[in-house]
Here is the input.
Amino acid sequence: MTDYAVDFQPIGRKGECRADETILACARRLGVDISSVCGGRGTCNSCRIRITSGALSEPTDIETGAFTRQELDNCWRLACQTSPTSDCQVEIPLESMTASQRVYIEELEIAIAPDPAVKAYHIQLTTPSLSDQRGDTDRVLAGLNEQHGVACRKIDINVLRALSPRLRNWNWECQTSVRHDEVVALGPWPSRQLGLAVDLGTTTIAGYLIDLNDGQTLAYTGAVNPQVNYGEDIISRIDYAIKSSDGEIKLHELAVNKLNEMVTNLCAKAGTSIEEIVEATVVCNTAMHHILLNLPVKQLVLTPFSATANLSLDVKAHELGLRIAQGAYIHFPPNISGFVGSDHVSMLLASNHGLTDGPVVALDIGTNTEISLLVGDEITTTSCASGPAFEGGHIKHGIRAVEGAIERLRITEDGVNYQTINKARPIGICGSGVLDALAQLYLAKIIDGGGRLAKGNPRVRVIENRAEFVLVDGEGEDRKSSIVITQKDVRELQLAKAAIRSSIQLLLEATGFVDEDISEVIIAGSFGSYIDVSSAITVGLLPALPLDRFHQVGNAAGMGAKLALVSLAKRKEAEGIASRTHYIELANASAFKQTFIETSHIGRYRIKQGKREAVT
Amino acid sequence: MSGELTKAVADLQEEEALKLTNDWLASGMDPNAILAESRDGMELVGERFGEGEYFLPELIYSAEIFKEITEIVKPKLKAETQKKRIGKCIVGTVAGDIHDIGKDIVVFMLDISGFEVFDLGVDVPPEKFVEKIKETGASIVALSGFLTLAFDAMKGTVEAIEAAGLRDQVKIMIGGGQIDDEIRKYARADAYGRDAMAGVSMAKEWL
Here is the structure.
């Protein structure tokens, strides 16, 4: 089996690629982040590359379907379908890279009195002598008891192993961190007591370093979840985990390594050491939770979608390979179901202010959208597969929220006005832009309520019987330079928004309420934070309610993770939320299909007895 | 056959389609010819759906129109020609998977194309497919699965059919989420369809 030399430009990474290895697999192996929404199946077209020298295997049927004749002649290929047949140089355009996505995290301060699981005690010990030959640890535990009235019998094995030399270094004075009845960390006096709160998202990870004594955020950081290279959505990722022999381990390692990197980053920003991080919380959806904990994932995706564990868990950080204080625990708040995880619980924890009696709808929009309807103490929840359309997936020129992505759009008589991220040259359109586009096309009557593109419009062109609307004119005939929205893109968006709207409708019907009753709509998550709510109402993604009833709360899941980190009372509250939640499985709801089809229509309406009723 | 009814059905002109149906029937036109034009119209609907021009609501609407036409024409059809079906097809979403919207579209399109369709629903264990083949003598089996983990269930279903000694008397096609030729080979099916239209064309070829 021959190996060929591959040179990835402009990134400048060189390596060897086997003749039977795809360029995508080779790139992954060398740490080059080529985007692969579908995980390498050949269905998403996001791994577009160009060969600038050398030879590749013959284009597959999938590639001839994905590119025009001219593009193939210009050496455009799909990395997941192509293998080298000689040494070669491969150009990866910016839009095919996954890195440097805008990561939405914000500095939210907590307004509660900290009541952390870990408490710190300063102890001063007498030196061992021939007349006092007690063991070092026995001395420490006795000191805790005598000086603070804390009865503690357990100590983490790693802390135990490092204890003797350190006590001698510190001259028998130290700070002990005690969690319930266990010593989880030992440090010099005085040390800080810090905690790590993580929102482990499918796409982006947010990490916060918190002072456990006063709840202040010392530093925060965000990163793209490196697992995206193995599939942008949960199902593709789990598929990879099952199909390859070390898939589960690999995904786990990717997550843990990234977390360790983020911890180092946070400590550098705050000027602390990892030994001072004595507790952590992680919130995530159920699949991410299982991958991080190395729990089996297969049963999550087969009906009836059972989780291995939904209850809250306390697991030693060192068990998972997370490098913080040696004996520290990670607290995992509870999940609700196979598809609704602790991140949703965490979001509810942070947003649940209980100020209104009327029903509140809280949703986190992503590839999977979780929605809860809260009335008094009752919580009814469901989740739906909204698909990647709102994250740029399955849309011809859809991309993630990277530099150059169109994020805002208005259609006027003069043409299309748009705004891109960092005001860079437009290279594609991201979720918020795609939503604006749909709303604007509808308002300009370029698409009708059914979603059909009007072929007579000057900006609508028809190529091979397929209609598309030109958002940004390209320089030449090359598909690459004009940015369009196609008829198929509109259909994908209709499916995505129908999934979400029909789920909201089903929750209302299950609890006996209608749109107008909703007192507040809480929109959480990164996509939700950037959208123009009026666009969402215009297309019927959200009910037509006055704008002041909508609140975009940013990373509420991260906020909830912080609350659970610093407060035992908040952990109990999270458990209460999970136990009070009544989960509805959409597949079981007989009205779902009908409602789904009805809500695929674009416009402002309410659903009455299964049919649309326009709302002015 | 003027093609006017085909056009009315394809353009979802309900009133026009029903008017033509009633007028033509009254003037003594062969009911089968009327149905044939309607079916041609439905095929066009299917094509437009495949191109994205029509969407789910249009598909449902076309089904309603077609149903209304059939109701009007049925009494005039001779008893023996009423149930003239071109073939028998068993359709179901495989065990472990509950996605049905795609499957329902296939069932619908096979039905209007003249097949007698047995829809087994979702999460269908392999034994049920085997039983149905024995019961109906159907020659085409269509397995639907959206989740990539349904592929194992598809394979299991094909194997169950083999074990029952029925493999040679049926043609099996698969369809759903991320299906490609690799999956087809893995499941040992005869063919795969990228969408409902492809599935129906395949079924017709197999007659």
Chain A touches chain B through 33 residues (CB under 8 Å). The two ends of chain A are 67 Å apart (CA to CA). Chain A has a mean pLDDT of 90. The longest helix of chain A spans residues 487-511.
